[in-house]
Known about the structure:
The complex is a heterodimer.
Chain A: H1 2-16, H2 29-39, H3 43-56, H4 71-85, H5 89-94, H6 96-126, H7 130-170, H8 173-183, H9 187-198, H10 204-217, H11 221-245
Chain B: H1 2-6, H2 13-23, H3 37-51, H4 56-68, H5 79-94, H6 101-139, H7 144-171, H8 174-182, H9 184-207, E1 215-217, E2 224-226, H10 227-234, H11 238-253, H12 258-274
Antiparallel strand pairs in B: 1-2
Amino acid sequence: MFVSALLAGLVVGLCKMDYFFGYCMLNRPIVEGALVGLVLGDVATGTIIGATLEIVFLGSFPIGAAVSPDGGTAAGISTAFAILTGAGAGIGTTFAVPLALIGGFAYVLCKFINNIFAEAMKSQLSHGNDGAARALFWAGSWIGTFGLYFLIGFTAVFFGSTAMEAAVAAIPTNVINALNAAGNLLPAVGFGLLLTMVMDKQLAPWFFVGFIFTAYLGMPTIAVTLLATAAVLLIINARGEKNANLSTVDMEDDNEF
Amino acid sequence: MSSNEKRGGALSNKDLANTFRRAIHLNGMNDYPGQMHSGYTYAMMPALKKIYKDDDKKLVDAYERHMNEYFNVTPYVSGLPMGVTLALEEQNAQSEDFDTSTITGVKTALMGPLSAVGDTIFHSTLRVVAVSVAIDLCMQGSFAGPVLFFLIFNIPQVIARWWTLKMGYTMGTRFLDEAASSGIMEKISYAASVIGLAAIGAMTATNVALTTPITFGGAGDTDPTALQALLDGVMPKMLPLALVLICYALLRSKKVGMVPMLFGILAIGVVLSLLGIIG
């Protein structure tokens, strides 16, 4: 258990360094779940939990200063729980929501640690010590983020797995099944939140176009994405031609271009 | 590059590449008063040192200027403010009476509109499209899924980082004016929204599992009728669609937040499943 918790903690810490590594989405559930699965020897479970949680947290990403649930850290820890206790992917998803909240609030603490290093960096720079400032930036990034989230990941997995195993054993099978069924509903929240960001009245039909192609025709998601890309290119080209033809006439239609 | 020479830019492509590399760490040490200010200063340091190589006082002023200023932008388009401020710092180095508040002003003015475009393109579209392409593979448990997601997202974002830096440095704020007048930004965000929405629609049909085991009739010698079969006859995946639209409407009304909704749906789901209504 110690080694597994150590490995999971390392992955959780490194993935939280996402911001340091160019915000390359290491801290998204879809990546972090798979990576924890990889180090714990069950890639498939990690990938499935990660992908499921990616959708639950699809509409949730940190913008600005607001605290947002940390789906990535939740996916990492949930994957470790699911693999180490043998509870399976369904339960892994169910316990992710509280973990995501803990991960999100921990980032507030991380920012306070960062601020200590930022103040030190500021005072070095006021003396023109750019070398020292550089070192402080690196130290602050690694201690505040990797250090904190390694501890969270390690502690949660090391002490949580046993409790988790006991909890899962104590819960009756029909409740476990109900939790799984309820967990399957959570992706709807992710889609709903994302829709509040991208959908307006004019664009709404595209959501239904995508839905209809998949629900009625069973078209894979990739095919729908490609089809939508082709359609939007045709529309933009058509609008361009129309604008060129009508260049002497004032635009009468009310499209947004 | 020719316009670079026209402006008498002191920074070579190599210097810009160094800034680009350091800007990868832009959000590495985010904090409350200044958000990305430490990362911004860290990324600018070597270029500033070169710009102010003869003037230690102005160099320290520049360090402090960026360190003390709040900065927050979608990191993938951070090159634009960096390139623009580097060009302005150069003007400050060459002239005696340059008003350095211009540098602060430009940074502050760029953050908002740039983040609005950057968040739409990268967070709410490219990421969603990358998920939509990878999700089927992921659900089969294949590691190729996350790898595909990672590549689809990161190749464009790294290119955007370099391109915005280069454009910001060589063209200054003129870049934004030209982009606005050509309408390219509207086209990109229109295309992004359409593709994103279609992908969300498709994923709604495949990734929300909600069915009902309810049956009715079946007294005597007739077989019971499954409600799910009736619903499928009208519209397959009707229940997942309804659930997504309900979540959307509630979140949009701002009556329920995301976290209470997650817990609420878990609780309702468990109860309905135990009652044999869903599952």
